[in-house]
Amino acid sequence: MADVQYGHFVAGQAVAGTSGRFGDIFNPSLGEVQAQVAMATAAELDHAVQAAQTAQPAWAALNPQRRARVMFKFKSLLEDNMDEMAKLLSEQHGKVIADSKGDIQRGLEVIEFACGIPHLLKGEYTEGAGPGIDIYSMRQPLGVVAGITPFNFPAMIPMWMFGVAIACGNTFVLKPSEKDPGVPIRLGELFMEAGAPEGVLNVVNGDKEAVDAILVHPDIKAVSFVGSSAIAQYVYATGTASGKRVQAMGGAKNHGIVLPDADMDQTVQDIIGAAYGSAGERCMALSVAVCVGDKTADALIERLLPEIDALRVGIATDPEAHYGPVITAAHREKISGYIQMSVDEGAKLIVDGRGFSLQGYEDGFFIGPSLLDNVTPEMQSYKDEIFGPVLQIMRTQTVEQAMNLASNHQYGNGVAIFTRNGQAAREFAQRVNVGMVGINVPIPVPVAYHSFGGWKRSAFGDVNQHGPEGIRFYTKVKTVTQRWPAGVVTDQSFVIPTMQ
Ligand code: NAD
């Protein structure tokens, strides 16, 4: 057994796991097990739901400004603890410290958005909708809600969810990834320190058993999920079948379309960072560059090569490293398998990152950057998400063909176009069949007060994460039609009321 063991965080207390089942948490830079995490049973999950259920009415009854004060305090605690949390995140995930700070910061920005909850929850009002009749609507919380999150953003994605849900007056059960639960547990502790009553935010660690318990629990009213598409679809189908509101974000294959008139110097910088940053383990990683015209492709590759050569792969705490190891040895094998598959399918391997080894850290889960050219739409390695530091280049003759590649792909999370032509970019943004579009912006993740969500197999359900859509997801609307007695009795009516 490792020295550090993560249990759960329920009703404001650290709770040891009782299932006897544990998962290993690696330090991917060292390739060593550094801690264990307890896997919850359905009974342990239920214990957390009961804590959340007990806390919910009083939390919802607190006026929104007082709920916002907890958010303000939480935000400042996140800032105070940024360095310590970023180190923990890097040690469990493998992303470099600066990127871990970005992960926490993007979550913190959702908390900043949630600080505005008194304004965001205001309903609508119509005076005089009929004779003496006024109508108003209010947004009420759902009750207990749950979030299930992936390994690749252990700070940001939990905060996308619980930041908004809790500010709306719900209480929350978070089931983070079992691969890097340290930061999610810390978020639970800091939220309590910020003044949240016990049971408002609970963290339950686990795997499929805990997820399945969430999906059928009668007291959980809504489930937010982010992870791979097959699991997202399963979560959506199972959760909605048991009557829950579900939003389930899945995998991605994000195309960057390069037009001949693009500012090539800037485009190369943008593509390098977006393709290889965080070892490509981002759902908004730019994993395919589609070049319009062979000249564009040749020019792009020529400029990418020295930049790839200059990439520094290092341990997560190396301040000079551009990216660190991937999450597990198994995931590195999967990425290597996709590189081989691309070659077998006829792609041209220009840079091969397999076999990369970091001196002094030979057991770490490192993989060098890879670049493939002549990738075509029939290839399985193109259809699938690789989720590693691998950039695939495709060539088309027209912008229309390039757009169709992104539009027809099974995933539709993000897409970027690089051009100086405003009209072409505008038309592309209007017509492309993808949820988030960047125009000369390689990673178009919307800011916290807009909403995040892809299309097609990148998201199941209709409502996106955070921003106005987040408020809609975590509340239900009640509409009141009122008339106060004016001393005049109106006739009975057997006809549906209209405004005739
Ligand atoms: P994953 O699907 O393996 O795990 C996500 C969550 O599901 C975890 O909490 C895990 O415990 C749980 N889970 C895993 N297998 C399960 C099963 N069989 N039944 C029930 N629950 C199960 O995803 P991951 O590897 O942690 O994360 C990477 C994936 O997430 C990538 O596909 C990436 O694109 C995607 N992602 C998507 C977004 C988005 O917003 N669209 C954001 C980040 C990551």
Task: Provide a descriptive summary of the structure in words.
The chain is of the alpha/beta class. It folds into 2 domains: 5-250 and 458-479, Aldehyde Dehydrogenase, Chain A, domain 1, CATH 3.40.605.10; 254-439, Aldehyde Dehydrogenase, Chain A, domain 2. 39% of the residues lie in helices and 23% in strands. The chain has a 7-stranded mixed beta sheet with strand order 15-16-17-14-13-19-20, with helices on both faces. A hairpin with a 2-residue loop joins β6 and β7 (133-141). The model has no long low-confidence stretch (mean pLDDT 97). The structure holds nicotinamide-adenine-dinucleotide. Nicotinamide-adenine-dinucleotide binds next to α8. Residues 148-153, 175, 177-178, 207-208, 211, 226-228, 231, 249-252, 283, 385, 387, 413, 454, 458 line the site of nicotinamide-adenine-dinucleotide (NAD).
Secondary-structure topology with pairs:
Elements: E1 4-6, E2 8-10, E3 13-15, E4 22-27, E5 32-38, H1 42-61, H2 64-80, H3 82-93, H4 97-114, H5 117-120, E6 125-130, E7 133-141, E8 144-148, H6 156-167, E9 171-175, H7 182-193, E10 201-203, H8 208-216, E11 220-226, H9 229-241, E12 245-249, E13 254-258, H10 264-276, E14 286-292, H11 294-309, H12 329-344, E15 348-351, E16 370-373, H13 380-383, E17 390-396, H14 399-408, E18 411-412, E19 414-418, H15 422-431, E20 436-439, E21 455-456, E22 459-460, H16 467-473, E23 475-483
Parallel strand pairs: 1-5, 8-9, 8-11, 9-10, 11-12, 13-14, 13-19, 14-17, 16-17, 19-20
Antiparallel strand pairs: 2-3, 4-5, 6-7, 7-23, 12-22, 15-16, 18-21
The chain binds nicotinamide-adenine-dinucleotide.
